[in-house]
């Protein structure tokens, strides 16, 4: 069974700090990995995706992938209170996505 | 940029009634996915369609059916509704071109079954 594991949190960081969110996956056949941000009662919003080992940067966000360790992470630099949300990690192949249960991030002013 | 459109945004039904949820994908997206998300849960994949054909099936109850039409919009039909069907239902769309099929979610339909 395909599984994506995340620490449920909450992860609390002060404003301006770096938030580090982690995720592991069980299916070695997974090819692409996605980070979504979800505010309570709202839909998941795609932040980034990554499919090659290493780092991928987009603004304040950096996604990291290590396929050998089956590990994905998301770093958020200069965290803002508006970043407070649940972050969902998802793994997929060509179609379906398997989501983790999400990590709640709280950024305090 | 155009996003995924879902209607209705809120729906209240009674047990044993029927509901139809609609999804309009991002223009030029050919794949539609349906997810169900209960309170405090992660999105659970129900079913997907590519070029109007069912492509994958997840944990969709037999009471539910879905289809994708020639204009690529999709409808999720839910019959004999149960209290446990109360949830947020998301539609997502993606394009089959390119290496990665990133899925973009619509705003969701909140279904309440009383």
Explained architecture:
- The complex is a heterodimer of chains A (109) and B (114).
- By secondary structure, chain A is mostly beta strands.
- Chain A is built from no helices and eleven strands.
- The termini of chain A are far apart.
- Chain B has 114 residues and is an all-beta fold.
- Chain B is 0% helix and 50% strand.
- Classes of the chains: A mainly beta (109), B mainly beta (114).
- At the A-B interface, strand 4, strand 5 and strand 10 of A face strand 5 and strand 10 of B.
Key words describing this protein structure:
heterodimer, A: 109 residues, mainly beta, 6-stranded mixed sheet, 5-stranded antiparallel sheet, globular, B: 114 residues, 7-stranded mixed sheet, 4-stranded antiparallel sheet, 0% helix, 50% strand
The global form of chain B is globular
What is the chain-wise order of helices and strands of chain B?
A: EEEEEEEEEEE
Task: Please name the two chains that share the biggest interface, counting residues whose Cβ lies under 8 Å from a Cβ on the partner chain.
Answer: A-B, 22 and 23 residues
Radius of gyration of chain A using CA atoms only: 13 Å
Inertia-based shape of chain A: globular
- Count the strands of chain A? 11
The ordered string of helix (H) and strand (E) elements of chain A is EEEEEEEEEEE
- Give the terminus-to-terminus CA distance of chain A: 40 Å
Spans of chain A with pLDDT under 50 lasting ≥5 residues?
none
Tally of helical segments of chain B: 0
Q: List how many beta strands of chain B DSSP finds.
A: 11
Short synopsis of the structure:
The complex is a heterodimer of chains A (109) and B (114). Chain A has 109 residues and is mainly beta.
């Amino acid at each position: 069974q395909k599984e994506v594991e995340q620490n449920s949190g909450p992860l609390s960081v002060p404003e301006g700090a770096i938030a580090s969110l982690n995720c592991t996956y069980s299916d070695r056949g997974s090819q692409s990995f996605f980070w979504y941000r979800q505010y309570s009662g709202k839909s998941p919003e795609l932040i980034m995706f990554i499919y090659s080992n290493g780092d991928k940067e987009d603004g304040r966000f950096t996604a990291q992938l290590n396929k050998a360790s089956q590990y994905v992470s998301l770093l958020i630099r200069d965290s803002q209170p508006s970043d407070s949300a649940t972050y969902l990690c998802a793994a997929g192949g060509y179609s379906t996505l398997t989501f983790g249960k999400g990590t709640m991030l709280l950024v305090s002013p | 940029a155009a996003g995924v459109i879902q209607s209705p945004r809120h729906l209240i039904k009674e047990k044993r009634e029927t509901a139809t949820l609609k999804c309009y994908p991002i223009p030029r997206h050919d794949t539609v996915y349906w997810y169900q998300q209960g309170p405090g849960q992660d999105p659970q994949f129900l079913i997907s369609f590519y070029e109007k054909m069912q492509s994958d099936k997840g944990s969709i109850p037999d009471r539910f059916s879905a289809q994708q039409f020639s204009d690529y919009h999709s409808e999720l039909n839910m019959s004999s509704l149960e209290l446990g069907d109360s949830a947020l239902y998301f539609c997502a769309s993606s394009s089959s071109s390119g290496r990665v099929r990133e899925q973009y979610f619509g705003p969701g339909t909140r279904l309440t079954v009383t």
